[in-house]
Design brief:
single chain, 316 residues, alpha/beta
Length: 316
């Protein structure tokens, strides 16, 4: 079977490219739209002996660094085919250009080029808005972030805009009392704007909780939009790392439209396959800003970088 990836400005052009390259018997394995372009992966069975062009021969030689462990690991983690193809292509290029043979070192360098990583307590923007689906771990992620700040000698103010779940507010308020910081509740974007700006005069960080929403229900999405528009903030998507990659990507696209540019994987300690977060970070161009790795509020938030991410993918 011959498999190829195609990129075109529209679906019609992409299909023409598939037919020209692979013929009328080609089967579409996956297709995706991103940044105004169409990405298609197609395959065709070959009954005759395969002949390779000079370029394809070169690609085969490049892949001799030991690609199999990476390819098998990406498949195990459930990474979407189109993302897996991009990772493998970049790995081949890196291995060839740098003369590398070790798969882990190759994948580490690949991830350093393909993904972005930032400290959750980056001072680039002191206001952090947390968003996600119900039960995605937003409130706990906020408490863990506040705890990390306290360990570094920094104080935070926690603001809730969640007028749906009273229990979540009580939980956050309890965490705030333990951490000896303010917990405030705001109703409406004007109140949120004024409260957050005032808090910045006292606190170096302001952490904003939002109601958990179903991203496929328009009415719920519209509840979050005014919140993200009211403040210039780092918008962070908390997402269960064990989600199905297809569902995760579709949901993340909605949150990206709401302003999310960072992803914080949650329940990493309960997850063995992380294809969803690799897919989301690439498809939606989101930066990693930490990961929830245990139930502990004090130590449950870990930094994530290209090396730790590669280690998770290749872990046996």
């Amino acid at each position: 079977m011959k498999i190829k990836n195609f990129i075109a400005p529209d679906i019609s052009t992409a299909m023409d490219m598939v037919r020209q390259e692979l013929g009328l018997d080609a089967v579409i394995i996956s297709n995706e739209s991103k940044n105004g372009e169409v990405y298609i992966t197609a395959a065709v069975e070959e009954a005759q002996e395969i002949s390779f062009s000079d370029t394809e021969e070169e690609e085969l030689q490049i892949s001799s660094y030991g690609e199999t462990p990476i390819r098998e690991s990406l498949a195990y983690h459930g990474v979407l085919d189109i993302i897996s193809g991009r990772i493998l292509a970049k790995c081949r290029k890196i291995a060839s250009e740098r003369g590398l043979q070790n798969p882990k070192e190759v994948l580490e360098r690949c991830f350093s080029e393909m993904y972005r990583f930032q400290d959750i307590l980056s001072r680039q923007n002191p206001i952090k808005i947390f968003m996600g689906t119900p039960g995605s771990g937003k409130s706990t992620a906020i408490a863990k972030t506040a705890a990390q700040a306290k360990f570094k000698g920094e104080r935070v103010c926690i603001i809730s805009t969640d007028n749906v779940r009273a229990g979540a507010n009580k939980q956050l308020q309890a965490f705030a009392q333990i951490l000896e910081t303010d917990f405030l509740f705001c109703k409406g974007e004007r109140s949120l704007y004024e409260t957050a700006r005032k808090a910045l005069s006292t606190y170096p960080y302001v952490l904003v909780d939002t109601p958990g929403i179903n991203p496929f229900v328009k009415a719920q999405v519209e509840k979050i939009s005014p919140i993200t528009e009211a403040l210039k903030a780092d918008c962070i998507l908390t997402m269960d790392a064990g989600r199905n990659a297809y569902d995760a990507a579709e949901a993340a696209e909605v949150f990206y439209g709401l302003g999310a540019r960072f992803i914080m994987p949650t329940r990493m300690d309960l997850t063995r396959r992380i294809g969803a977060i690799l897919t989301v970070a690439d498809c939606c161009d989101m930066s990693f800003c930490g990961a929830s790795v245990s139930d502990s509020i004090a130590t449950g938030l870990a930094a994530i970088d290209n090396k730790s991410l590669a280690g998770l993918v290749l872990a046996e």
